[in-house]
Amino acid sequence: MFSTGRGGKPLEEPRRISVGMVGAGIMAKAHSIAMAAMPMLFWPPPALLERKLLADVGLKSAEEASLRYGYSAFTDRWQDIIEDEAIEAVHIVTPPDSHAEISIAAAKAGKHILCEKPLARNPEEALSMLKAAEEAGVVHQVAFNYRKLPAVELAKRYIADGAIGRVLRFKGSFLCGGYDPNMPFRWEYRKAVAGGGTLTNLGSHVIDLARYLAGEITEVNGALRTYVHERPVFADNVEYFREKVDVDDETSFAMRFDTGATGLIEATNSAWGRSTFITFEVYGTEGSLAFNYNNREQLQVCFAKDPAERRGFQTIDLGPQHPYGHGLWQSPQIGVGFSELKSIEAYDFYRAIRDNSAAIPSFFDGYRTACVCAAVMRSAKTMSWESTT
Ligand SMILES: NC(=O)c1ccc[n+]([C@@H]2O[C@H](COP(=O)([O-])OP(=O)(O)OC[C@H]3O[C@@H](n4cnc5c(N)ncnc54)[C@H](O)[C@@H]3O)[C@@H](O)[C@H]2O)c1
């Protein structure tokens, strides 16, 4: 029990959960901020989190990250997290080539798993992760964080309530910029590590939004383009050599949904002037919805039932009355940034653990997205429609 001072009712102490983090890079920062901020935003929280152990193959990175992000200890062996019986939940924020091995070991050890996207390099790996998590009965969530935007959840409610009728069409994009042959080589440019390029890295987020809002994607027909085939590898600011790029810089593809709806997605890292330019439009028999991440606290809605002279897109400003609004800021437009988004993601993950319920998006969603990406890759070769099953 927490003491509340004179006359106060004692507060029920939230459950405490010890957490391990695998990876010390950019997403370790995002997940650690999210864990620290979760009870500050969402009170009472589903759990109070103890950031216990951080692992990275680079011991120096692990040490620095553990200090910076507030972990009690660090290691260069992710297995130390798996072997620590006090750790109940693991965040996997390494590149995709290690997601399956770490995740399956974590599931077998009975630990709940929040794994970064893309869930795996291909559908086979993703399916093995899903099976391991289901067999172990642990909570599993994949970090398609844009699903957690209040505007996306509001769009989902409009669609579920029938406010825009039957969905006819989904159109989405994730554009970043731009074309730069001197951008240094990173693991994202190697298929053996990443599983794909902009398709799996950026496009997977939009595929997840499409599946969430418009239904299961059954067929795709698309293209992949690589603009820069070699990228520089630097050491001490000197370019040593150029490494081969074997993934796409850009993709665009058409989709058919199991609902009969159709759609289009595009993703690129070669769009000057665009930065995290995530958009979607959903057109239904009774209305339309439109969203742009650059104005992420707004959702545009249009209803066919409005009188013709007043029909058009209206702007809904997201605020405390909207999904997750009770934990966010009290006025619209103060800001739902990436840290808030990751806090909502953590909030949902730890709520599922507390309630012994399923988390979404789950490893099933990660698996289905991997199936869609694999079908786009096949379609780019066959230049025809490919099934996602
Ligand atoms: N959800 C999002 O919006 C979002 C944004 C960026 C990246 N990501 C995803 O997050 C994951 C990590 O990306 P990042 O940008 O943080 O990468 P990063 O390169 O910044 O960091 C990855 C870290 O993992 C470590 N690592 C690699 N293999 C390891 C292993 N086997 N065991 C322990 N540590 C290991 C590396 O040493 C590195 O420190 C990727 O899957 C990426 O696609 C998601």
Structural class estimated from helices and strands? alpha/beta
SS strand fraction: 25-35%
Fraction of residues in helix: 25-40%
Question: Rg to the nearest angstrom?
Answer: 22 Å
CATH class of the largest domain: Alpha Beta
Question: Tell me, what's the shape?
Answer: globular
Strand-and-helix sequence, N→C? EHEHEHEHEHEHEHHEEEEEEEEEHHE
- Average the pLDDT over all residues and give the rounded result: 95
Briefly note the CATH topology name of the largest domain: Dihydrodipicolinate Reductase, domain 2
CATH architecture assignment name of the largest domain: 2-Layer Sandwich
Which small molecules are bound? nicotinamide-adenine-dinucleotide
State the fourth-level CATH superfamily of the largest domain. Answer: Dihydrodipicolinate Reductase, domain 2
The biggest beta sheet reads: 9 strands, mixed
N/C terminus separation: 51 Å
Domains, number: 2
Strand count:
17
Q: Output the strand order for the largest sheet.
A: 16-15-14-13-7-12-11-8-17
